[in-house]
User: Fold this.
Amino acid sequence: MSPDVAAPFAKLSVDFVGSFPEPTHPLDPVLPEVAFLGRSNVGKSSLLNALVGRRIAKISATPGKTQLLNAFRLPDFYMIDLPGYGFALASHGDRLKFRQLLQGVVEQRERIEGIIWLLDIRHPPSAEDMGMRDILSAGRTPTIVVLTKADKLSRVQQVKAARERAAELEYPPDDLLVTSSEKKAGIPELGERIRVLVAGFGAQGSGLGEATTHNG
Ligand code: GTP
Ligand code: MG
Assistant:
C-alpha cells in the first residue's frame, strides 16, 4: 500500500517490538497498551495498517497461522495484534489455548487500557465471538467494538446490520464503530477513541491531543 498521510497515526513512528507467546510478557519501556482482537480473517492486520497509513502488519492469505502477540510501539503507547480465533480447522486444544491467552491479556496485563474487538459487519457473532464477549464483559478493560468490511454493504444495509449486531451482542448501538479499512471509513474515529484510551492513563508528554472521555 502507498503511505496514507491522512491516517490517524500516520505521523507517529512505529517500531515492531516483537512477537511473544505469553499473554503476560512485559514490554519495555512500560507504556499504555491497546490490543486488537477478533476472529481469524476479520481484518485485524488491515485495520492496524489503516490506522498508521502504511503496511506494518501482514495481511494473511492463510488464516490461523500466528499464535503470537505482535507488539508495535507508536512511540507513546503499544498496539498489540492478537492471534485470530475461530479458525475453522483449529483443534479443541488450540481453541482452549486461545481462550486462556485472551483471558491472560484481559485479566493480567497491567497496562492494557483497551481492547479493540473486531466483528465482520455482515455476520451475526459466532459462538466463539459470544465467548469472547463474556470474557470481555467479565473484565474491567474498556472494549471498543469495531465492525469491519462495511464496504461490502450498501449504506442502508450498514445501518441495519450495525443495529442487528448491537442487539445480538446486547451492546448500546452507539458503542459500535462501523469501519472499512479498504475505504478508510471510520478509521479517524477509531484513532480518536484509541487516543482517549491511552492518553487517560499516563502517556506523558505524548501530544496525544485533548480528546474527550469515552467509556466505550
Ligand atoms: P488473521 O491474522 O489471519 O487473524 O486475519 P486478520 O484478522 O488480520 O485479517 P486481515 O487483515 O489479514 O484480512 C483478511 C482478509 O480480509 C484480507 O483478504 C483482507 O484484504 C480482507 N479485508 C480486511 N479488511 C477489509 C475491508 O475493510 N474491506 C474489505 N473488502 N476487505 C477487507
Ligand atoms: Mg492478522
Summary: The mean pLDDT is 87. Residues 44-45, 57, 60 surround magnesium ion (ligand 2) (CB under 6 Å). The first strand starts at residue 15 and ends at 20.
